[in-house]
Structure formats: structure tokens, C-alpha cells
Amino acid sequence: MATDANPGMAVTRKNSNWRGGGPRPPVTVLPDSTELVHSDRGDIVGAAPLYEDIDVVRGPVAEILLQPGPRTRLVVRASHIVTDGRGLQHWLADVFRVLRGTDPVGSPATVNDTHFLAAAGKVAPVAGTGKIPTQPTMLGSGPASGRPLWVRRTVPAAPKGVTARIAAAVSGRLPAECGHVLVPVDLRRHDRSIDSTANLTAQLLVPVERGGDWRRIHSRLLTGLLRKHEVAQQLGRDFRNTNPFVNSLTEAAQYTGDAFPAAAIISDHGPFDLTRYAAPTFAPDTIYTLPMLVPYVEMFVSAFQLDDRTELTVGARERPGAVEAARALLDDTAALLLSD
């Protein structure tokens, strides 16, 4: 029922077209012996199910992994080609509505990002940055394995300006005097009548100075949002030919994982209501993401605010010293979240 009400979670791709009626997301029960998390450290163990490919041509484009035990774990995996964080939440909330015996709300819209380009109205152009030079890695050194690692931290604070505080922590470790972070922006904000599970995220490119003050970064973020820079940067121009990272597959292949033009993607999901994801025999006590790797970005940091705490996860490439460096970055982030 939940997937019927959210048909974008059961699609397949043929060439550049998406077709509905694909395989529905399956539910797989993992044995208790599958170790997913080192609870004493907060690192996510690289269990095989977390790395399996998602085939958007044949489907399914999402799946649910359930691991019963003293502390039940529910893992939702989905292709970012098909959906984004907000879209995934729409679908998952409907899954739990059905489990509670109520009707799903549904996300039936089929619009794409061009709809939001029009809905955003007049948007002033943003000057192009040109190609952004790469910088050496901050999280460890040496060859990367090509696999992601994830490091978690729970911080007993839920302040304002989480994205800017994370960006400031990242900026403190920049190899150069300045760098860039990317902030995903939900395009649905330009037309709140749209309910869709599609990937409707545009990236806001934000310059940061090494050791920058989080308040200054926060002001820069707010200005960018007010001026709709995410639309101007990604949708309002010929992004394929003018984006600051790559213009071709040949250029993309030049990113070997040891230097990156962007320091981090920072995704703050904001205050999160766990009760939306409860069922008669399931009451969640926390949520966090396992961020994906992006070729032109060194790390991906995600955050959720749950009442009076913030859940953080750093996703990065597995390389010597990366776990220790990620923990140190989370130390810096926690200090900023706990500060005034």
C-alpha cells in the first residue's frame, strides 16, 4: 500500500526515461550475527549488505533491511538517483502509517526540477566560479580502498546553525586558505504543494575560509537561500558545461580519490520526529544516515536533531588514518555544537 501511494519508489530506468510499475522494495531479515555497528566506538562496520549495488535499470531501487535482536536495527537503502532524504522520508512515513493501520498520504507528483525552476520565479544569475582547484585529503593519507567508512557521534545539544557549525569544523582542517562545501537544498521549498519522492535536491556551493567563524558562514548560507542561489547555480544556467567540478566523463575519471575540489557535502535534516516512524511493536530511539561517496567531494556529513541532541555521521573513503581523523573532526564539530 505504501509503495502504491508512492509510485516513484518502484520505478526502473530505460535510457533517459523512468517507468513506473517496477519491483517493489523488498524486506530482508538479517541474522543477528551480521555486525553493522561497533556500539562502543560509533563506527559503522562494513557489512556486505551495506555495499551491495542498487540496479536502477532492473530495480528494485530501494530495500529495507531488518535485524531483530536486543536492539532492533532497521536499515533503509535507496538509490540517490531516484530519491533524496525528503522523498525517502515521505515513503517511509507511509510505510509506518500502514503498519499502524492508517491510510498512506502518498506522494503522487511526477514533476522534475524544471518545475521548480519555474516555481522559483525570478532568480538573479550567479557569477561562475570556474573550475575549482583540488586540495589534498584531510581525513587520512595514502591510497583509498574505494569503499566508504562511516563514523558516528551523538552530541547532547541541538543548537541553531548546525550546517554552519559543521562547515566551520571542516574549514578548520582545510589544507589551503580557503575551500568550498556543498549544502543540499530541497527544491520543494519553492512549491510546497508538491509531494514527491523524487530526487529534488540542488547543491548550494558555499566558499569557506580556513578556520572560519560559524556565524559568518551561517550568514552566507542564509543569503544564498534568500537569493535562491541553489537554483541559479545548478538549474538556472548550462550546468553541464559550466559546473565547477567536471564537464565530461574524462574529467570525472581524473578524480582518483586523493584530492578533491570540494571539502564536504553537509546535509542537515533538521529537527526530526521519530514518532512518525513507530509501529505497535517498534519504537525507534535514534536515526542516522550512511552517506554516500561523491567523486569530487572528500566527505559527506549528515545531521539529525532529535529533541535535545544531534546525531552526526561522517562518510569518507577508507584509507590509513581516516577513522582517527574523522573522530577528531567530530570532536571539533561537537565543541561548536555545544558552544554559544
From TrEMBL:
Could you tell me the superkingdom of the organism this chain comes from?
Answer: Bacteria
**Which segments carry the region annotation Disordered?**
1-25
In its UniProt entry, what is this protein called? Condensation domain-containing protein
Q: Which organism is it from?
A: Labedaea rhizosphaerae
